[in-house]
User: Fold these one by one.
Assistant:
Number 1:
Amino acid sequence: VLFTVFAHLPATTAPFAAFGLRAPWLIGVAVFYGISGWIIAHVTSRNGSGDIAPFLTKRLFRLVPVLAVSVMVTLVASMLLPHNPVVDQFYPPPPVAWHAGMSCLFFFADLGYWVSVPYAYSLEGLWSVSVEVKFYVVYALLLIVSPRLRSVSLGVLAAAILAFRCDLVQRGYMPALSHVYFVELFCLGVI
């Protein structure tokens, strides 16, 4: 958790940026996703559950309320605060805040490169919820198969995403660094 916090603090990233380097702190996100994948696999195997509906319902009821409050705060602030360059970084004008908020609520905030999701610092960390939900959907669909086949399927998916990302990076396509690919880290945690 501390690595993820450090990744968002200028004081801990500036020394690396001064030398043109990326701070190593984002490894905390990768570790978090891997651990989350492992926990989900452990809990579902312990419960012996192959039922998709309860699995997804539990996760959505855990995520959506906090997500909705975050989006509502951003939307209200964007309507009430005076707009200037400083405020707009955090709480953009209402149309931009609305678009950014809906991308979070409908779980496509991590696809920013492809669907032109506007940026609002107040919603910055919520892209990770979109990645998390995509993993939950994939994993829920795999709950109907045997645990062994599930692990193989997740391994193949992780390898395919990683290969696709490497290919895009080699061709110089920056969206290959998009957060959508972090689903592979959840998959590796399960395996």
Number 2:
Amino acid sequence: SSEVYGRIAGERYSAHTPMNPITPYGAAKAAADLLVAGWRETWPGLHASVVRFSNLYGPGQRPYRNASVVVRFALAATRGEAMTIYGDGEQERDFLFGGDAAEAVAALAELPEAPARPVLASTGCGTRIAVIAALVAATAGIRANIVRLPPREVPDQSRIVGEPSTIAGWDGPRTAIVDGIAQTIAWAREF
């Protein structure tokens, strides 16, 4: 998860950016990274890698409190509910469609040797939360019903855009954000 990076200098992160989590969630993800590294050191030849994803979204993601904003907005739009934006909506995220993430993992599993360093699966492109809300509304064919609330008290990494790793056998994400949103809305209508 990109949460392992916490606040970083600059606007982009990569698999080589040092871990500096600032939330318990990010710390748990960083601990998992270290656990995999420990297993690899203990058992040389173990085929295990750390894959850090940017913000995953798509059909099938459960709408728990910290689910992707894309999924939460799609469910709200299809139910006639308001989409809640915390802060000004200018926060930027790198949204990766779940199917593209699965293809990245499948490509890694096919490698004869697992990469020793973490791999970042991301699009390399940022999309603002306010733009996501507008795209969801337009794709769902509704007038955007947006409620704006003050920024959350949890530290916000407003610039989370990743620099994707090169993964042999994976040409990068193929799903454009508008197409991923359309698939997510179709799923939300059936949820």
